[in-house]
Specification:
With about 325 residues, the chain is α/β, with parallel strands linked by helices. It has one domain: Rossmann fold (3-Layer(aba) Sandwich). The chain contains 9 helices and 16 strands. The chain has an 8-stranded mixed β-sheet with strand order 2-1-15-14-11-10-8-9, with helices on both faces. The longest helix is centred in the last third of the chain and has 18 residues. The chain starts with a strand and ends in a 12-residue tail after the last helix.
Length: about 325
């Protein structure tokens, strides 16, 4: 399903009130049309050439999602490294209470080993003893908190290098909330509805990842990020949900949905991937891109379509909520 929207003259983003929610607008049919306007290339979002990404939208993750992460990490042979640096509890005794699930899985033999990597500063992030657990890990998990703590601490260090080497040898990199935001090369550091942008780790190229997406109504924030950084794909992952990327294939698991966003000029399209669906990411992006191109070519404000007119009449639209959590 594709939901269309447009920036209004006021600068607001006009969208159905609950994009991705229970009261979605009707799906819009995308048909081939002759496009006379200059054609922007389809954004070429790409994950790692080897390995997997496991991108979670924050909130309470169902046990089935975490169990799937362990399964893909190798099951009973999995060697998982947890990086808690984004959290206020990193480096404190209070962290241990938040690791109960992982410790239980290790004790029950459902994974081989569970280790913590946390560097208190950038110098430590280059020390051999700190990065040692990453060298034979099968998966890494970035915990939630403040995403800029992760990038400021680890970009350009031995920790980042070893995480990327893990992908090269076919391992998996996962994370939730802040640990999801760092996945893209363009990272949303915070802000709403105008995003504060910084450099991410770039595990997912030509993209902008946002999290807590439907729960916190972050459609406008992501669209604004794409407007400022064109020819990229937006990935909005909702709470309790994971997007699993392996090569050109992606799968959604968990309680909610993932929205793939493409924007051009003043047009924006959100393509929904529901939990349980397996799709090719390039195909989803291509469909969303075609929908945007149609509206750019027609030079017709999307707000005139029937579904958007009702939204305008009701004076409702998706907007970012001024909540804590980045």
């Amino acid at each position: 399903m594709i939901v269309m929207g447009a920036w209004l003259a006021s600068g607001s983003l006009s969208l159905p009130a609950v994009v991705g929610g229970e009261n979605d607008a009707p799906a819009q049919t995308v048909e081939a049309v002759k496009i006379a306007a200059p054609v922007m290339p389809v954004p070429a979002v790409s994950g790692p050439q080897a390995g997997r990404l496991f991108i979670c939208g924050g909130g309470i993750l169902p046990a089935a999602v975490l169990e799937r992460f362990i399964e893909l990490a190798g099951g009973a042979a999995a060697k998982i490294v947890y990086i808690p640096t984004a959290s206020i509890y990193a480096g404190t005794p209070d962290l241990e209470a938040r690791l109960a699930f992982w410790r239980e899985q290790e004790s029950a033999g459902r994974l081989k080993s569970f280790s913590i990597v946390h560097a208190p500063d950038r110098d430590a992030a280059n020390r051999a003893d700190v990065v040692a657990p990453l060298k034979d890990a099968t998966a890494v998990w970035f915990g939630g908190g403040v995403q800029s703590k992760l990038t400021e601490r680890y970009l350009g260090t031995a920790v980042e290098h070893e995480v990327k080497q893990l992908l090269v040898r076919g391992g998996m990199v996962g994370g939730t909330s802040a640990g999801a935001a760092i996945m893209s090369d363009v990272m949303i550091r915070g802000g709403a509805p105008e995003p504060d942008i910084a450099e991410g780790f770039g595990f997912l190229k030509n993209s902008v990842v946002d999290q807590h997406f439907i729960k916190r109504n972050r459609h406008t924030r992501l669209a604004n990020a794409l407007h400022r950084h064109p020819n990229r794909v937006g990935i909005g992952v909702d709470e309790g949900t994971a997007l699993i990327l392996a090569g050109e294939h992606c799968e959604v698991v968990g309680d909610s949905k993932v929205l793939v966003c493409v924007a051009e000029a003043r047009q924006v399209a959100f393509h929904e991937i529901k939990s349980g669906e397996n799709v090719k990411l390039a195909q989803v992006v291509g469909q969303a891109h075609l929908a945007v191109r149609q509206n750019v070519a027609k030079q017709t404000p999307v707000a005139r379509s029937a579904s958007i007119e009702k939204v305008a009449a009701d004076s409702t639209r998706a907007v970012d909520m001024p909540q804590t959590g980045r």
